[in-house]
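Check out one such.
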Amino acid sequence: MSPTEVAWRIGNEARDQLSRITPATTDSETRLRADCPDWDAALEAFRAADRRPVLLDRARAEHVAAKHPALVASVIAAADRVGNGRFDFFGYGPVQLPVPIDWNSDPISGVQWPALPAARIDHRTAQGDPKWIWELNRLQHLPWLAQAWLFTGDDTYAAAAFEQLDSWLEQNPPGHGIAWRGAFEAGIRAISVAIALQGFRDSAELTPKRYRAIVTMLVESARRCWTQRSRFSSANNHLIGELAGAATVGLLFPELADAARWGRAAVDVLRAEADRQILPDGAGAEQAVGYQMFTVELIGVVAALLAQRDGTAPQELTAAVRRSTDYLAALVGENDPAPRYGDDDEGFALRLGAEPIRTVRDHLGIAAALLGSALPAPVSHRTISALWLHADAETSHEEHIPARNLHAPNGGLVVLRDEGRRIAMDVGPLGYLSIAAHGHADALSLVLAIDGQDVIGDPGAASYYGHPEWRQVHRGTRAHATMSVDGQDQSVIAGPFMWTNHADVHVRAVDLDAGIVDAEHFGYRRLPGRPVHRRWLIAPPNESTVVVVDLLTGTGDHDAVVSWPLHPTLDVLECASGFHVTRGGVPVLGLSAAATAPLRFDAIRGDTETHLGWWSERLESREPAWLLGAHTTAAGPVAIVTVLDTHPSEPESITDTRVALADGVIEAYWTERGVVRSLRLDLGRDGTAIAISQWR
C-alpha cells in the first residue's frame, strides 16, 4: 500500500477505535435532519415526479402486466412470500421470520447482532454470517412489494412494505447496527428503498411523516456513501455501489440540496470509475464474472435514471455497459455456460425480478435494455428488470450468433471454439488493485464446455464467512484446472478478501486461428529454486483433440500436480494412462497424461478433510464433484503433457502417451484411435512454432 493509503487506513481505524470507547449516542442525536423546509410540499413534488426520473410507474406496470403475465405472477408470488416474512438467501434455504421482523437476528446461526454503533461491531470475528444479515437489511425485496401493488392495486402490499420500513427505521437508526457497517451496504439499500418508494408514491400509506423519516434515512445514506466511500485498494465494486447509491438518492430527491450535491459528485466519479473497472476489452477488472455483472448493473441503474431525466446518459457509462456486453456475449455464445472466474456473491444492483440468481443471459437482456437495443434471443433472457428499464425490451429478435474466438488482452482471457466445443484459458492478473479481493489463484487455468455443458470448470466461490475452510480451498490453486507446486497457491492468501505476492502472468503468444496459447506465470518464484510454470494450450480447429503441455522450470526437487475439476454430473473411470469421463453413461471426455518423471493419478470427490472435490453453484452450498490430478516429484525442468479427447467413443481412446524433454525441445507422442500422433515444442520460440503430426 502507498503511504497515503496507509495513513488513510490508520485514520479510519483510529476513528473506529474511538467510537468503540465513546458512549453510544441516542437515536435523536445521530439522526441527520434533512434540510427541507416543507415536507408536505416535498411529498407532493415526489408524487408528481417533478424534476426527477421515474422507474416504477403505474402506466408501465399496466403495460408489463398485459404483455407478460407469467413474469408478473412470479413477482407477485415473491411479494407474497416476503410480505409474510419468508426470505431465502444464498444456499442456506428459506427461513420464516417472525412478524414484526427483528432486523438484527440471524436465524441461520442464531446470532443476535448488537444494537451498537456500527463501528463497534466487528463482523469479521462474529459467530454469524454477516452476508446473510446484510442481505436481509439491503431491503431489496421492497421493489417486489411495490410492483405487486402497482400490478394488482391491492393495498395489502403497500401496508406490508411500510410496516416493514417503519420497523426497520425504528430498529436501525443511522449509524447503529450491523446494517450500517460500511457505506457500501447503505448504498445498495438506498437504491432499493428509493426505487420502491417511487412505486408507492400514489399510495395512501405514504404519509408526510413516513416520507420525512424514509427520505431522511436516504439522505444520511447518501452522505455516508460519499464521505465514507471506498478508496485506494478498496475501490472496487464497493466504490461503485456507494457512488450508485449516492447518485440515485440525489437524482430522485433533487429538492434536498445536500443529496443533490453528493449525487452530482458521485456521478462525476462514477464516470471515471466505469472506465477503470470495465477494461477496454470489456472484461471486469476484478477478474470475477459475477462482480462484473453486478458492477455493470449498478452503473446501468444510474445511467437509466440519467437518461430518463436528461434524454441521454453520460457516454462513459453507456460505453462501459456496451463493451462489457460484447465481452460477455462472446463468452457464452449461443448456448455455452458462463465461465465462473473469481468470486460471486449473487449480488443484485436492483432486484426487480423474482429470479434467485442473475445468470449471464439474464444480465445481457438487462444490458440490452439499458442500451436501448435488442440482443439476439439466443444470448439474452427476457426478465422483468429489462422490461422496466426499457419499454421496447420485449422486441428482441431471433438472430444466429456465429461462434467466434476471443482474446481479451486486458482482462486476460482466451476463448477457442470448434464444433460445439468452447475452451477458455485464464492468462490475466489475479484481481483488481493491490488486495485483489475477489480474484482466485487460477492463473493459466482452463475451462471446457462441450455441446453447451460444463465438463472442466471452475468449482465456484463456495463461501465467504459461513464456512471459512471452504473459502480457503475454493480460492486456491489446487481446486482449479492449472498446476500447483509444493502444495502452495500461486499467490499468497493474506485474509478472506486479500492477497499478497500476486502471480504475474506473461503471455508469450496467442494464435486464435491456429488455436494456440503460450503463457507463463511467476507466482512460484518465491519458493526455493524459483520455479516458473509455463503452459501451452493447443486446440486446433477441426480437431477433437486438445493438448495441454505444462513445463515447470527452476532448480531442486518440487512436487507438482496438474488438476482437472469436473462438473458434478460427470462420472469417472480410471484407465492405465488417465481417465474416461461420462455423463449418464455417455462418453464425454478422454484424458491421458504423461510426464518426464514418474507420474501418478488420483481422483478426489467430496473430501471433508481437505475440502477438495466439491462444486459450488451458490454461495454457502456445495456438492461432490470429481477432481482429477496428475502428480509428479522431480527436479526441474519437468514437463507434463495432457491429451484431451473431446469426442471419445470408448474408454482409452487415447493410449501410449509419452513425453521427452531434451536440448530445449519437448516432444510428445500418443496413439489416438490407432493413429500415432506427435507434438514438438521448441522452448526457445513462442507458441506459434507448434506442429502436430500423425502417421499410421
In short: Residues 24-32, 395-400 have pLDDT under 50 and may be disordered. The domain at 406-695 is CATH 2.70.98.70 (Beta-galactosidase; Chain A, domain 5). The CA atoms of residues 663 and 693 lie 20 Å apart.
